[in-house]
TrEMBL record:
This is DoxX family protein. Pfam families: DoxX. The chain crosses the membrane at residues 48-68, 75-93, 105-126. It is found in: Cell membrane. Belongs to the DoxX family. It is a multi-pass membrane protein. Keywords: Cell membrane, Membrane, Transmembrane, Transmembrane helix. The lineage of its organism: Bacteria, Pseudomonadati, Pseudomonadota, Alphaproteobacteria, Hyphomicrobiales. It comes from Afipia felis ATCC 53690. Its main location: membrane. InterPro entries: DoxX, DoxX-like_oxidoreductase.
């Protein structure tokens, strides 16, 4: 039996784990900016009405929705666009190459959220539970 055949039944669950972990990672950015936890010195004085504050709200709400898997596809679409915009606003002007401009995570988040938008939440999600009813 090949490794592909052995792992194939686990693809839906691994998608749920990817969604959960991507949500946790983006959620922590929002928590640092809006709730000041964990305390990050660069994010200590973020104002809600500022561009960074609005981004923090998107990260906080979007991250929480991704963690539980609620409204997953529209949330993933918004977060995909959000991280693409973040890349071009913050990183792209420094260099063409993400490794040189510090934008590797923004690019990776963008494509992970694009994949989740296309693939859905996976079976371990509120969306999946709501669909069963």
């Amino acid at each position: 039996m090949s490794l592909e055949n052995t792992l194939a039944p686990w693809r839906p669950q691994v998608l749920s784990v990817l969604r959960f972990m991507a949500g946790l990672e983006i959620l922590q950015h929002g928590m640092a900016k809006i709730l000041h936890f964990p305390p990050v010195p660069q994010m200590a004085n973020v104002q809600i009405g500022s561009l960074m504050g609005i981004g923090g709200l998107i990260e906080l709400i979007g991250g929480a929705l991704m963690v539980v898997g609620l409204f997953t596809r529209p949330t993933a679409f918004i977060l995909c666009g959000f991280t693409a915009v973040a890349y071009f606003m913050v990183h792209a002007s420094k260099s063409f190459f993400p490794i040189l401009n510090g934008g590797e995570l923004a690019v990776l988040y963008c494509f992970v959220f694009l994949y989740i938008f296309a693939a859905g939440p996976g079976p371990w999600s509120v969306d999946a539970m709501r669909g069963r009813k």
